[in-house]
Amino acid sequence: MSIDRIVMAFAGTVILVSVLLSVYHNVNWLWLTGFVGFNLLQSSFTGFCPLAMILKKMGRQSGAAF
Questions:
Q1: Which positions ≥6 away from 54 have C-beta within 8 Å?
Q2: Domain extent listing, the chain
Q3: DSSP H/E element including 23
């Protein structure tokens, strides 16, 4: 699995979990959803993604985006 797919899977999982937490626990969990969305947006413009950098240091295969 390439870095691109791992980043997208991780972001999707965090978004779904934070939405579920906001519905069943506390609405403030939506801030996490907003943070992940903002990070995806800024990484599309700048190419800077902390998770991608960590995965690259761990030896994962790079994809087209990272």
A1: none
A2: 3-57
A3: helix 3-24
Give the pLDDT confidence of 1-53 residue by residue, as tens digits.
Answer: 889 999 999 999 999 999 999 999 999 999 999 999 999 999 989 989 999 99
Instruction: Report which DSSP code applies to 18.
Output: H
Distance (Å, whole) CA 3 – CA 9: 10
Whole-angstrom distance, CA of residue 15 vs CA of residue 8: 11
The 10s digit of each residue's pLDDT in 21-35 is 999 999 999 999 999
Q: How far is CA 30 from the centre of its chain?
A: 14
Amino acid type, 35: F
Cα–Cα separations (whole angstroms), residue 44 to 27, 33, 65: 27, 17, 8
**Rounded Cα gap, residues 5 and 52, in angstroms:** 10
